[in-house]
Every structure is written in C-alpha cells, then in structure tokens.
Amino acid sequence: MTKEYKTIVEVSGPLIFIAKTEPVGYNELVNIKLPDGSTKRGQVLDTSADIVVVQVFEGTGGLNEESGVVFTGETVKLPVSKDMLGRILSGSGEPLDGGPRIVPEDRLDVNGASMNPYSRMPPEEFIQTGISTIDGTNTLVRGQKLPIFSGSGLPHNEIALQIARQAKVPGSEEPFAVVFAAMGITNEEAQYFMEDFEKTGALERAVVFLNLADDPAVERIITPRLALTAAEYLAYQHDMHVLVILTDITNYCEALRQMGAAREEVPGRRGYPGYMYTDLASLYERAGVIKGTKGSVTQFSILTMPGDDITHPIPDLSGYITEGQIVVSRELHRKGIYPPINVLPSLSRLMNSGIGAGRTRDDHKAVSDQMYAAYAEGRDLRGLVAIVGKDALSERDQRILEFADLFEDRFVRQGREEDRSIEDTLNVAWSILSELPEALLTRVDNKFIEKYHPAHKKSN
C-alpha cells in the first residue's frame, strides 16, 4: 500500500523538502496532491535519513504543508513508439501538435544506460549536412558529438533547422531520422520551428520536443533526456541512424544553476554547480555507435556563449567532452554572410576518420588543409593591411589576401535553402584554389592538382 506523506517542511523555488519519510530512491518519481484536488509531478533530487528534496515539474504554486506526497517507486519513463516520428511534443513529452497521445510500444528510463566504452565502434561514416564549412573543413561522422558554439543574436537556429532538413548519408538507403529538442525558447521561436518542420516536410522523419521559456526550469532538465531516450530507441530497436539536435545547452545549464541555488549548494565557476561537467557528460556521452547494432546516435548540440566568451564554463566544459566544435562568427554575420561559420577556431577531431576515397573523395583532406592554411594567412594579412596598407604587400601576399575574400564569399556563403553535395563543396573549393598560383598549393599533391584543378580539367 502506497503511503501519502503530509510532512512538507519547506518550499523553495521549484523544490519541496519533505521530512520523516521511509527510504526513497534517487530520481524516483513523485505525485503531489494539492489541497484543491489537482496533482503535480516531481522527481527526487536528493535523499538522506532526515530530509528528501523533490523538484516539482509543474512549479510549486499552490503547494503548502497540507499537500500530500506519494513516492511511486519508479523513475521518469518515456512512452516510446515508432509513431513518434512526425510528432511535435512538449518538453515533458505531451503532444503539442493536436494529435493523440502516443500509444507506447515500450516505456524507457529517460536517464538511459551508460555505454560501455569497449562496445563503442570508432565513428567513421560521413554525414552530409549540405553546409560546405561543415562538410568540407569540419566533417561530421556518424556517432560523433559536435557542438555549435554561437552567440546571442546569431543565426544558430537557422543553421540547426537547415542541418535537420538536409542531413543524410550519401549513397545510403538506411533509415535516417532527426530528433530535435529545443530548451527555453520563446513562443515565437517555437512557432518558427514548427512551421519550418511542417512546411519543408522534414517533420516526416523527425521527433520534435519543445520546452518554452515560460515552462518550469525543472522541465528543461528533463527535455534533452527525453530526446536522447527517443533517439536511442529509434537507433537501437529500429536500426535507424539518428541525428540529435539540442538547442540551447546554455538554457539547460541556467536551469541547473537555478536548481543548485534553490538547494543552497556551494557554487562552482560563475555560480554554476560543481557537478556541471558530469551532468553535461551524461548528455553528450549518449552519442555513438555500438558493436553489433545497425543504428547510431549522432549529436549536434548548440550553445550560445554568454558575451561571446569561448572560455565561459559552458563552452569550456563542452569542449573537453565533445569531439570538436563549430564556431559561429559575429564578424562574418555582420558582413551579411550566411552561414557565418568561422573555420579557423572550428574543429572536428574525427574528420579524418570519415573522409577520403570511398567515403567522400580522395582529395578531400588535402583540399581542406590547403584552404585552411591559405585562409588563416589571408586573415593575418588583413591585420597587416590595416597598418601598412595594401600597396605595401608583395604580389604573393595580395593574392593570398584576395583568396581570403573569395573563400568567405564563395565557400562560406551559401543560401539558406542551398543543399550542397560533398562533390559540389569540393568543386567550389577547387574553383577558389585555382585563383592562386599552383606554386602556392603546397599542401596538395600534384596528382590531385592534375586530376581536379580546373585548368588541368580543361586541358584534358
């Protein structure tokens, strides 16, 4: 027989403190009965011999000492089914699209199960996003976790939607799905996401979770776990290749900080909890490919850097856990370039595993290295020109300077609906490199120059 406790001793923000309970489990699900007869849900956050701390999902308004608390003995579970594809759900898994509740094939713990490092397969299959600055120079591979570091007011949401629409594995007929989770977004942004998914047809192969800014902060902590649980179900029980897009991790971390303050925890850097690294790792490390399974989970998590500070705790800790980062540039955005991705601080540590002959093209690595080197030198020369003027540069340096402008205008810049294949991306790269004298192409083997350089192609 379940017991109902009326021993709430304190209500603090989204938390309630309950005394004189029998032993309860960490993360256990709680039903709270209000004096007016309504019910709210919560989750055990901390438990000891004297007190149990419960975070309330729907907010603590209306709760008092007369409210009854029932411990269910279960953790938070997500009802899952393949019918989730094509659905838009709230941050707690409730339908937002006017459709019926999902009839579950199973109910899975949202905390997932830790992936045994030994059972992980090394990621090596190329995923094409249709965006040249990612596919060409910071390639995403299946099973990778690659965050996008952005700033307030930059078009990271548009980039996320474009990736959700266009992502695919070239030449593969295997089922591919997208799980999109938005945390702490405004109603306007939610409408924008929903309209874009429905208008473009991307919703047919997507599951969307939307947590709004006016929803309880506690729900924000659950939302990414629901999304990852849905992704793991589709990947490992239906053999699908799933791309998970989480936006915005900064809002998630703010919710963690709010919860830590309510619990009166000793704060870490800039007021964030000392366990934030572990908490973020519990999300990021749920990406991967497991030996003996056909499916995979790949992650794009988007975070806005407060004050564009890449040393802020959120991007700093994320960079330690993930396999690189894509950096969105305010400078390129001011120039009107979309997508404003700066390839110089961006990095994909697994890129070399997913490119080359048989995956993308044999010249991919050489072309990427050559463009990176020339663009980096061109950016340095812009600083020099500001001091000595363009006329003081040698002819070689002027060509490199012009290359940097061409790179931004023709390689980085592309349309919001433009879906470039990897062939198109590499051909655009060669058209820009052809503006440099062949003697400057020091990072490209002669066999690739003879095979792909536009001047040699014409002579052939």
Automatic annotation (TrEMBL):
Gene Ontology terms, MF aspect: ATP binding; proton-transporting ATP synthase activity, rotational mechanism
Cited CDD domains: ATP-synt_V_A-type_beta_C, ATP-synt_V_A-type_beta_N, V_A-ATPase_B
Superkingdom assignment: Archaea
Membrane topology category: Peripheral membrane protein
Record's subcellular location: Cell membrane
Domain ATPase F1/V1/A1 complex alpha/beta subunit N-terminal: 8-73
Assigned keywords, A-Z: ATP synthesis, Cell membrane, Hydrogen ion transport, Ion transport, Membrane, Transport
GO cellular component, one term: plasma membrane
ATPase F1/V1/A1 complex alpha/beta subunit nucleotide-binding domain sequence ranges: 130-348
Gene Ontology BP annotations: proton motive force-driven plasma membrane ATP synthesis
Sequence ranges assigned to domain ATP synthase A/B type C-terminal in this UniProt record: 354-452
Keyword Ion transport set for record: yes
Subunit and partners: Has multiple subunits with at least A(3), B(3), C, D, E, F, H, I and proteolipid K(x).
Function: Component of the A-type ATP synthase that produces ATP from ADP in the presence of a proton gradient across the membrane. The B chain is a regulatory subunit.
Family affiliation: Belongs to the ATPase alpha/beta chains family.
Official protein name in the record: A-type ATP synthase subunit B
Organism expressing this protein natively: Methanomethylovorans hollandica (strain DSM 15978 / NBRC 107637 / DMS1)
